[in-house]
């Protein structure tokens, strides 16, 4: 999402990296090996340590809630100036929010959107069944929502979300709810959700591919990916959930419409992260059969 757990390099991953250097036909084998190891850890937690797994997911929800709140406070402050200040504020707010993904990764928290890529690759390689995949994603969503709710409740007792920041957040929420007014609007919401999770998981692919050893570079990649989706108005199901919960504590949101928006966003996120990144890179780096055919031809 864990936008995730930092894997401990094992001999299998090291061997995959060496194989990439000597046989570059499948340059993604280290990425796949790393993701599968991360998946094994998630399977263990969701099977034997569900409470702790939900805690990790809740922490991701808290981080998203806090940093998305900062995003709208900055946007509200920028809205008081001219077009130039608003543009600068949008870039600064998006960059700030991007650090939520960095913190989620380095605190080993669990984010729904990045886990979509992980379970898709694992299901393709038959390391996890679809039933357990849905369980893993469901528990992650539960934890993310719990964390976002904690932030929303705490904020209700402060004036942090008020004034221009509150107005900016409410205007954005009304825009998202308005997508439901037509079939074209729902399609627009769905497409924005696809591109959002494509951005998130292409960043995680770069972090997991074994080619980057510099933490600063990893951070920049994650921050820029989030900046792209916030600047373009793509839809992130967990961030949207946090925003709706915060506004809901002020009685400013239609709960059922908000739930529908989140459902569409989740489906779009699943396509963007689970199919365009997860299944796509799993199939293009699947050596099974091809390596055997090469061996047969050489003989």
Describe this structure in words.
The structure is a single chain. With 299 residues, the protein is mainly α. It is built from twelve helices and no strands. Helix 4 (83-106) packs across helix 9 and helix 5 packs antiparallel against helix 6. It is globular.
Global structural class: mainly alpha
Helix content: over 70%
**Would you report the number of β strands?**
0
Give the overall shape.
globular
In DSSP terms (H or I, runs of 4 or more residues), the helix count works out at 12
What is the ordering of alpha helices and beta strands?
HHHHHHHHHHHH
Estimated share of beta-strand residues: under 5%
For the termini, the CA-CA separation is 44 Å
Mean pLDDT, rounded to whole units?
89
Task: Point out poorly predicted stretches.
Answer: 293-299
Cα Rg: 20 Å
Major sheet: size, sense and barrel closure?
none
Task: Offer a few descriptive terms.
299 residues, 12 helices, disordered C terminus, mainly alpha, single chain
Summarize the structure.
The protein has 299 residues and is mainly α. It has helices spanning 11-22, 29-48, 50-78, 83-106, 112-124, 130-156, 163-178, 183-208, 215-232, 237-248, 255-284, 290-298. Helix 7 packs across helix 10 (237-248).
Layout of strands and helices, then pairs:
Layout: H1 11-22, H2 29-48, H3 50-78, H4 83-106, H5 112-124, H6 130-156, H7 163-178, H8 183-208, H9 215-232, H10 237-248, H11 255-284, H12 290-298
């Amino acid at each position: 999402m864990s936008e995730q757990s930092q894997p401990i390099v094992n001999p299998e991953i090291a061997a995959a990296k060496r194989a990439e250097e000597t046989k570059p036909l499948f340059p993604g084998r280290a990425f796949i090996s790393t993701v599968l190891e991360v998946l094994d850890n998630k399977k263990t937690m969701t099977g034997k340590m569900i409470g702790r797994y939900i805690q990790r997911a809740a922490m991701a929800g808290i981080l998203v809630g806090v940093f998305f709140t900062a995003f709208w406070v900055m946007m509200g402050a920028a809205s008081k100036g001219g077009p130039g200040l608003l543009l600068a504020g949008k870039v600064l707010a998006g960059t700030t929010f991007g650090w939520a993904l960095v913190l989620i990764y380095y605190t080993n928290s669990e984010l729904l959107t990045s886990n979509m890529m992980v379970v898709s690759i694992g299901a393709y390689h038959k390391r996890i069944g679809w039933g357990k995949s849905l369980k893993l994603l469901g528990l992650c969503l539960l934890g993310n929502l719990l964390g976002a709710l904690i932030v929303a409740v705490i904020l209700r007792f402060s004036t942090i979300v008020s004034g221009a920041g509150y107005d900016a957040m409410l205007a954005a929420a009304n825009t998202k709810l308005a997508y439901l007014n037509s079939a074209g609007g729902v399609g627009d919401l769905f497409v924005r959700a696809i591109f959002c999770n494509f951005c998130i998981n292409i960043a995680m692919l770069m972090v997991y591919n074994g080619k980057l050893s510099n933490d600063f570079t990893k951070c920049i990649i994650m921050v820029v990916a989030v900046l792209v989706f916030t600047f373009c108005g793509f839809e992130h199901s967990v961030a949207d959930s946090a925003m709706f919960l915060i506004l809901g504590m002020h009685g400013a949101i239609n709960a059922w419409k908000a739930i529908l928006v989140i459902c569409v966003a989740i489906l779009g996120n699943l396509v963007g992260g689970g199919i365009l990144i997860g299944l796509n890179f799993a199939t293009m780096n699947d050596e099974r059969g091809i390596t055997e055919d090469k061996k047969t031809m050489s003989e």
